[in-house]
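Record type: monomer structure entry
Structure origin: computed from sequence
Chain ID: A
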Amino acid sequence: MCKSNTKQPPNSLLGIISHFKEKKTCLDFICEMRFKDGAFCPFCYDNEVYKYSTRYIFKCKSCRKQFSPLKSTIFENSKIPLSKWMAAIYLHTSHKKGIRSIQLSKDLAITQKSAWYVLSRIRHLIMTGSIEYNSLAVQGVVEIDETFVGGKESNKHEHKKTKGTQGRSTKTKTAVLGILQRDGYLHAQKVDAVDGATILPIIKNRVATNAIVCTDEWKGYTKLKYSHSHYKLNHSNKEFVDGDVHVNTLEGFWSHFKRSIFGIYHVVSPKHINLYITESAFRYNTRDMNEIERIKYLLSWNTNKRLMYKQLIKDEKAA
């Protein structure tokens, strides 16, 4: 029903721009990725649908509703041409530290507001797709660590400093928990605190009971010994590696993630930080794919969750 292009998209920006210059080519590609297991109705999810021969519209035999292959996707109701969308997805997923909305607006000749919304929709697809498609508990050797995102008090003027923000305080910083399967999948998310009551339920949900868990000496991990094979290192005593016991792989990801925040985006609000965390985790988890494979993988996620602009900016000041 969705014709497969005989000519595969090239693995370069110039090739992407040239290949997807026609709207029909974009629709063919999106349709092929979304309906790779067969077309379905986004209203009633019935798979008995047919396509009009004169236009790129489908109709469901059950509910009789017509729909575009863009319905319930990141492209729905967007006035930005699909050719620019494909270029935006390529730039966003291929740049190792991401791309700023102001830079994307210059590259695609659109407004900064539109570029930010495009990037936010892509991040939202990554976040919802990561939750639904990668929710299995990780096994083997698993590294668990936390990090904090926010400005350093030492860089502030004296009258703007906040007391009691040392260590793992979340008064002026946002806590992020990371769970990484050695040579495998990485999950990272924002957490309200790093105490045992907050992080242990997440760990137990994301880590198989037969996994070997490596952490530092933080007290929030103490009760892991009752549910997992738990090995810990005392970082305060300069103990960072003990044979195969370490969290260096996850520490390397934190370093890369913070470089993307400080070097590319500069400031990220606590409300939106989960979008940026999962964006970086997505690049890590698809590190062995080339750019086109990564785009195909992303567009194959049938999450049917489109981010509305009013949802994106809702209560932004309060957050």
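Annotation 1: The first strand starts at residue 49 and ends at 51.
Annotation 2: The chain has ten helices and eight strands.
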